[in-house]
Task: inverse folding
């Protein structure tokens, strides 16, 4: 089955990222990002590398110097793509971005069912090309929002891509609440997520495992309230519980709430 809905969401964030890039000055391109060692331009360079890989184009032969922010082989490969474009201007990187996403959209819009069913390795394990696209929407949109926060050009905060990213990250909440934060058997932790992407949900520990349900919980041991922007920053490790303590609050068992928020990084 051709995942037209996923392609539409990818086009949404790709087009929005291109529109953002067209507004940036060279100074803004070189601003430090939320990711250690990277600039706004580096973030887009990273996205280019990912789309080139998905298009099965040759990887960069450049080898970046070692750096403290490189923690694993995946990070090293990402750094090679990023560092290979650091001598370019932001406008040059944007042109390359526009070219690769135009090629990717042409490929995706003209592919058949078999293309999307091909087995491949995804960031979460074995899957299909369609599974990879499902993750890629979240990845591209999150990076778009990082670029926007740093440059102060807010946009595309809500809508399909934002809801898609939220729904994917919510899948990890049982691990955060149960395994990492150590919520006790029978406990319910509720989350009140406010605009730009409002969502109410709760996680209950039963037989040692967490399960998420939509909606508020009247018997929650603790309720954590935060806006969706802070949710995304915490879930991607861009801020810590202490960094963002003025952006989230809790009622009930505040010690448990702090443990949950402290263990909220859901990304690789």
Result:
């Amino acid at each position: 089955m051709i995942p037209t809905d996923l392609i539409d969401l990818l086009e949404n964030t790709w087009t929005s990222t291109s529109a953002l890039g067209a507004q940036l000055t060279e100074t803004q391109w070189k601003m430090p990002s939320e990711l250690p060692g990277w600039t706004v331009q580096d973030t887009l360079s990273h996205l280019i590398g990912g789309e080139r890989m998905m298009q099965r184009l040759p990887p960069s032969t450049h080898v970046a110097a070692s750096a403290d922010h490189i923690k694993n082989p995946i990070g090293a490969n990402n750094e090679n793509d990023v560092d290979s474009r650091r001598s370019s201007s932001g406008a040059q990187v944007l042109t390359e971005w526009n070219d690769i996403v135009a090629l990717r959209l042409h490929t995706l819009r003209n592919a058949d069912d078999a293309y999307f069913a091909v087995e491949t390795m995804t960031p979460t394990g074995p899957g299909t090309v369609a599974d990879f696209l499902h993750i890629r929407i979240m990845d591209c949109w999150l990076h778009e929002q990082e670029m926007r926060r740093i440059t102060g050009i807010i946009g595309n905060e809500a809508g399909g891509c934002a809801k898609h990213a939220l729904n994917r990250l919510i899948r990890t909440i049982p691990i955060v609440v149960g395994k990492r934060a150590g919520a006790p058997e029978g406990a319910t932790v509720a989350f009140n997520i406010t605009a730009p992407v409002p969502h109410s949900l709760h996680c209950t520990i039963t037989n040692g495992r967490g399960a998420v349900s939509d909606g508020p919980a009247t018997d929650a041991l603790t309720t954590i309230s935060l806006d969706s922007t802070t949710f995304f920053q915490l879930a991607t490790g861009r801020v810590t519980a202490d960094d963002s303590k003025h952006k989230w609050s809790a009622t009930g068992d505040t010690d448990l709430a702090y443990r949950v928020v402290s263990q909220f990084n859901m990304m690789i």
Summary: Residues 4-156 form a domain with the Four Helix Bundle (Hemerythrin (Met), subunit A) fold (CATH 1.20.120.450).
